[in-house]
Amino acid sequence: MTSHGSDLADFGWTQFFASQLDTDDLEQSLPVRVTAVHRGQLAVAAPGVDRLVPSRMAHVTDEEDFPAAGDWLLLDRKTFRPERILHRKSLFKRRAAGTGRKLQLIAANIDTLFIVSSCNQDFNIARTERYLVLAREAGVTPVIILTKADLAEAPEDFAAAARRLQSGVLVETVDARARESVACLAPWCTHGQTVAFLGSSGVGKSTLINTLTGAGAAETQDIRQDDGKGRHTTTVRALHRLPQGGWLLDTPGMRELQLADVAAGLEDVFADIVALAGQCRFSDCLHETEPGCAVRSAVDTGALDADRLRRWRKLAAEEVHNTQSLAERRARDRTLGKMYRSAVQRKNKGGQE
Ligand SMILES: Nc1nc2c(ncn2[C@@H]2O[C@H](COP(=O)(O)OP(=O)(O)OP(=O)(O)O)[C@@H](O)[C@H]2O)c(=O)[nH]1
Ligand SMILES: [Mg+2]
Ligand SMILES: [Zn+2]
Fold it and tell me: If you ran DSSP here, which 8-state letter would residue 62 be given?
């Protein structure tokens, strides 16, 4: 297992995953990493393995139990069918765009999240905060990367605004096309590490990946002249391999990032507001008109930015709403799943009689 294990380590395999397998598992199954998710198929890789396998798994109804890019899967050694997803070290998910209340998995087993934005009109405080919440909730280190520093007059102003979003947050300004400029990102891209890139279309995620990997594997495209927006060049989440052995996960730019199940992440990113709320006279203070409200008085003295308070309220309300509707949906799916399974069991029993 050791020599096998060290090969797998090139793909991000660690003791965390190894400890989930017993000897039987290894005889019958092959651990592989999901490098891309296509409709109906998964691209998977492992030492000596690089292929497409069907994405359908038996008995899966819960949205979180479907394979995501970055997952470790056990394949049947004979049929190459996916058997089981190993427990994840981390998971990024969002409420899918549109009217459906579905959960969409973005990436699994990520060590670092590169939150990419540009030193121009794309830089958006509220959106960056959302990504920070997502990273903190998943227990992943976030790094805010501000691209197009070469085109901006005062890139440091963007960096300063980003640093105010969470105490101690890491911020780097770069020219994504220049090797020397992105060298500051190397510490997160070492052997066995997996980094996911999130940010709107056209900010330079694929450009960064190409510069870091030294290959032109990720497709990039000029942004539109008329509105400065990207064109959604990347359409599939895919892992790219670094020469030194790390993995970079390119993702399509997202128009909408609705958060759900992120209460802990919110508390972490907005720790300043949470601490103030703890000093309010009433423990159920809504920070509106109550006497002795520490949050309002911090806004009055200028210690807390009123906009930040407003953004926190909005995210907290959205979090509660989306988490509730997901819970309702899950309960409904579970009931349907049970009905379906017992119907199948009844049918099978009937067949045997
Ligand atoms: N001058 C300059 N141009 C950049 C920089 N980063 C990206 N670009 C350019 O911006 C355009 C869009 O970059 P992409 O890498 O395709 O953007 P993306 O984030 O992958 O976009 P999607 O795949 O649509 O989500 C390309 O023309 C890049 O060359 C930068 O730091 N400086
Ligand atoms: Mg791209
Ligand atoms: Zn209060």
Answer: S
Site of tokens 């069991």: 345
Residues 33 and 161 in one domain: no
- Tell me the CA–centroid distance for residue 177 and ligand 1, in Å: 8
If you measure from the C-alpha of residue 176 to the centroid of ligand 1, how many angstroms do you get, rounded to a whole number? 8
| Structural domains in the chain (count) | 3
Tokens of 220: 């990039």
Q: How far is the CA of 14 from the centre of ligand 2 (A)?
A: 29
- Structure tokens belonging to residue 326: 């997901």
> Is residue 234 one of the residues assigned to a domain?
yes
From 269-278, 312-321, 344-353, the region with the lowest mean pLDDT? 344-353
Ligand nearest to the CA of 204: 1
Mutate to test the pocket of ligand 1, among 207, 232, 254 (most ligand atoms within 8 A of CB): 207
Kindly state the tokens that stand for 155. 């890139």
Instruction: Report pTM.
Output: 0.84
Mean pLDDT within 41-68: 87
